[in-house]
Design goal:
3 helices; 59% helix; single chain; mainly alpha; globular
Length: 81
C-alpha cells in the first residue's frame, strides 16, 4: 500500500504522461521547421506540465521556467487549459 505522497506523485506523473504528446506537438508546431529555435524537449515540457498539475505554472517564480511564457499561454489556450 503506497503512502499518500507516492499516490500524489503517481497521479502527477500520470497527468504528465497523458498530456506530454499533445503539449509538445502544440509547442513545437512553429519551431519544428525554424532555423532559429530548437524544438522543446520532453524534459522541458514535462517540467512545465508538473507545474501545471500543481497550478504553479504561471506564478512569478515559475512563469519563465522551461518554456517561453507566450508560447506556453498559447498552447494552453489552444488545448483548452
Amino acid at each position: 500500500m503506497g503512502s499518500s505522497s507516492s499516490i500524489h506523485i503517481e497521479k502527477q506523473e500520470t497527468f504528465v504522461r497523458q498530456n506530454l504528446k499533445q503539449f509538445k506537438d502544440e509547442l513545437n508546431k512553429e519551431r519544428i521547421n525554424s532555423k532559429y529555435f530548437e524544438p522543446y524537449s520532453n524534459g522541458q515540457v514535462e517540467g512545465k506540465l508538473r507545474q501545471l498539475y500543481h497550478n504553479s505554472d504561471v506564478c512569478r517564480d515559475n512563469r519563465r521556467s522551461y518554456i517561453n511564457p507566450y508560447e506556453w499561454d498559447n498552447a494552453k489556450k489552444n488545448l483548452g487549459y
